[in-house]
Amino acid sequence: MAETSKRAHEGYEDHDEHEGHESCDCGCDHHEGEAHDGCHGQGDGRRDCEHESHGCGGHEGCGCEHDQVAMFIVGPIETNCYAYISEGECMVVDPGNSGAKIAEHLPDGVTVKYIAATHGHGDHVGGVKALKEAVGGSYVIHPADVELAKHAGEPSELGYSYDDNAPDPDLTYTEGDVIEVGGASFRVIETPGHTPGSICLVGEGSAEGVCFVGDTVFQGSCGRTDLAGGSPEDMRASLARIKREIDPHTTLFCGHGEITTMEDELASNPYFQ
Description:
Oligomer: single chain
Number of helices: 6
Helix content: 10-25%
Distance between the termini: 31 Å
Mean pLDDT: 82
Strand order of the largest sheet: 1-2-3-4-5-6-7-8
Strand content: 25-35%
CATH architecture: 4-Layer Sandwich
Shape: globular
């Protein structure tokens, strides 16, 4: 199993503690832009990204001993951006800000094949333009969120804006599509609710046991549904689908807060009960 190490970028500030907040329409305890239990918290302004390097999460039977996941915490509401690396190829997931900084901290010799968005909110795509200009790669997003992503550089409903509006995508993906990175494959499952085009990327091949869930699932919570395009009904259906289809041993790489496992969420997350 790959070792896990952690290091902060030079000049990175410690995270602040934050208070809780009211629930959204679906009862979720996590709001974009506000802290939740286990969240890194909201900083007092823009920050460069903090970097962590992970194995797949270290569960029994995982096949991705030789793959790596780097995590970058970016932007004013501390989005988790991930770089999944397999056999010299890389997929960057949700570069919400600081795209040029993310590019600087990718390992030497790695080819960025995809820049993948789990959904189109600015805190997940605001760094796409700068990252793509720095390292290339095909930007891919669900077609239902393309237009939303094009406004990432403008103030959001919560008053935040990010580095740039996302460009036109090179590709779009929908239910059942598969993208390949080295020995890893990621299958798209549509999980609307947070946005109409929210998706999860379910790992297969050397990425078996990995799932990038964006803002659909958080440790002990789920994504908010009270922003434009959100739907409590769709969120409930998406969570029910994840409960049915994602193996309990899967590591969930969430869009904010802590990395968790499906097993832990099935045991303790009230939205899976």
